[in-house]
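Hi again,

Forgot to attach this to my earlier email, sorry! This is the prediction with adenosine-5'-diphosphate bound. I've pasted everything inline since the attachment limit keeps bouncing my files.
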Amino acid sequence: RKIENTNSEESPELQQLVRAFNQMVDRLDRTFEGQKHFVADASHELKTPLTVISSYTAMLKRWGRDDENVRNEAIEAIDKETSRLQSLIKSMLTLAEAEQEDWLNQEQFDVVQMLDETANMLQTTFQRPIRVKASAKVVRMYADKNKIRQLLVILLDNAIKYSKEPIDVTVLQIKNIVQIEVKDKGIGIPEADIPNLFERFFRVDGARARATGGVGLGLSIAKRIVDLHEGKIDVYSLPDVGTTITIQFRQKR
Ligand code: ADP
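Structure tokens for the complex follow:
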């Protein structure tokens, strides 16, 4: 509980202490509110597929033995919602891990090589061209390699999910800044939604994103990784034109 009005005749030290205490209470309140929201949102996200699964299970119990159509439809739906639950739980665990871990396992590596490897892997899996261009053959970064790879996978995965054309990735080194840009010619994001993109469970038009299998946690994880590296992430997007996400890191070495 905050301390209400202090007597203005109290010593300045005491008044300062009270102010500091109140600020700390405010911070704790905000963290606590955030956690409450997260639990509420997570429960909602987990309940939705479970409701679908239990409705189809009930249908199967009643009509499944006699009706092949019901059987097929139910199996399809249960299969889809189970995968959704799995990916939801996986993303929630990744986010919890990323939020808990405040240390970086930094090392020197070539980000162009990492991008080539990641692009190749995703290209093979999703059958989508990803073109990587770089300002130099080798662009060195001193950062947490695994986390940077995770961040790139999140951005590329979104570009693949929300567009149908080839994806362009550009790496630039300008003095001690390394900049990576992921550009797609996809459905884009309405301007009003851009400030909310990094919120946990946020999806532009829930129904549309749900159909693509998105759970709305990828960009929260991405932001956390960028923040841990004291970097910057920016989104430029136009509906029906495409989205460009830029990340920048200052090189310390
Ligand atoms: P999701 O798992 O739903 O993709 P994210 O946190 O990665 O979650 O992204 C949040 C939302 O931002 C997505 O649901 C989608 O609506 C929108 N979004 C993210 N990247 C793109 C993109 N490249 N093009 C269009 N929309 C995007």
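The chain has six helices and seven strands. The radius of gyration is 23 Å.

That should be everything now.

G.
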